[in-house]
Amino acid sequence: MEPKVRRGIGLVAHDAMKKDLIEWVLWNSELLMGNKFYCTGTTGTLILEALKEKHPEVEWDFTILKSGPLGGDQQMGSRIVDGQIDYLFFFTDPMTLQPHDTDVKALTRLAGVENIVFCCNRSTADHIISSPLFMDPDYERTHPDYSSYTKRFENKSVVTEAVESVNKRKRKKR
């Protein structure tokens, strides 16, 4: 028997795109069964309701976060950084300016930093879910090595210089 793959999947949609994401999830529900879902508040609540209606016998694994503008986007970003999310399906509304646009940009950036699969529309989502890699239990994304970035201040005297600068300024005031 082939091993069942379990992915961490983030689901987010702007208001004008919620129906589209719900339809996409319902259309692909058989392929999505058995995965772990992280969703922003309203989107997750609506998707879970639709899935329970279509598949009342299935126990879906959903973590519903806060609404996107109320912190849910940041919660999603935290799950990305923690390695819990492999795919982020974020159906964005290209015709409406979002009050939390910086949060959306932050999620886009984190998806790139963490090298997770990210899409913002149904066509891309269709291509992703139809890829053989989506169900391939041997597929693992590469994890970028940022050690040179995180260690960029090693062997540098930034802290010592800051302390000396503050001490020097305090001596001048006396």
TrEMBL record:
Protein name listed in UniProt: Methylglyoxal synthase
CDD domains: MGS (cd01422)
Substrates-to-products reaction catalysed: dihydroxyacetone phosphate = methylglyoxal + phosphate
A Pfam family annotated for this UniProt entry: MGS
Organism of this sequence: Bacteroides thetaiotaomicron dnLKV9
Catalytic residue list: 73
Enzyme class of the recorded protein, top EC level: lyase
Gene3D superfamilies from the UniProt entry: Methylglyoxal synthase-like domain
Entry keyword set: Lyase
Job of this protein: Catalyzes the formation of methylglyoxal from dihydroxyacetone phosphate.
Binding site for substrate: 14, 18, 40-43, 67-68, 100
UniProt-listed InterPro entries: Methylgl_synth, Methylglyoxal_synth_AS, MGS-like_dom, MGS-like_dom_sf
Alphabetical list of NCBIfam families matching this protein: PRK05234.1 (NF003559)
Protein family: Belongs to the methylglyoxal synthase family.
EC number: 4.2.3.3
A GO CC term assigned to this protein in UniProt: cytosol
Annotated SMART domains: MGS
GO biological process assignments: methylglyoxal biosynthetic process
UniProt xrefs under PANTHER family: METHYLGLYOXAL SYNTHASE
Record keyword Lyase present: yes
GO molecular function: methylglyoxal synthase activity
Domain MGS-like: 1-160
Domain of life, source organism: Bacteria
